[in-house]
Specification:
Helix content is 11%, strand content 43%. The protein is mostly beta strands. About 3% of the residues have low confidence.
Length: 148
């Protein structure tokens, strides 16, 4: 089989390949356990002296009732849940089977406390969410934009 390529086809193929190689690696934004899915955990840029940062994320596809019982990240010394209508204190958030939770600044907050460094724009930081039944979930915390 004799395939003849025009100069234009070769250049277009080369440009397409070059643009794919030049694009930044896509960020992971969906993380799953055996019991649920966490989508796009992110926070805002923080100042040097910020006392805390709020993690925003969605929890859905909850197959079995579970509980968020811990969080580990090298950027914070502690964490807490604030604003849970069920009255959770500290770091214990019940997630019912079939429930969809939007965690963030406009409701239930997951706060990172005792920040060890400022959280910088367009960076990602490792974060482990620990669920009672689902176990440890390795995720990335994206820093998207500054507060208004």
């Amino acid at each position: 089989m004799n395939v003849k390529l025009t100069r234009r086809q070769v250049l277009q193929s080369g440009l397409a390949l070059g643009s794919v190689l030049a694009l930044p690696k896509a960020r992971a934004c969906e993380f799953t356990t055996t019991t649920l899915r966490v989508t796009h955990p992110w926070t805002r840029v923080t100042a040097q002296d910020a006392g805390h940062a709020v993690v925003n994320m969605k929890i859905d596809q909850v197959l079995h009732t579970d509980r968020l019982i811990g969080i580990e990240t090298p950027v914070a010394g502690a964490a807490e849940i604030v604003g849970d209508p069920a009255g959770s204190k500290g770091l214990s958030l019940l997630i019912q089977q079939g429930q969809e939770l939007q965690i963030g600044e406009a409701g239930i907050e997951l706060r990172l406390l005792k920040l060890k460094q400022p959280l910088l724009m367009a960076r990602t930081y490792p974060m482990t969410l620990i669920f009672e039944k689902g176990g440890a979930l390795q995720a990335e915390l994206n820093v998207d934009y500054a507060a208004n």
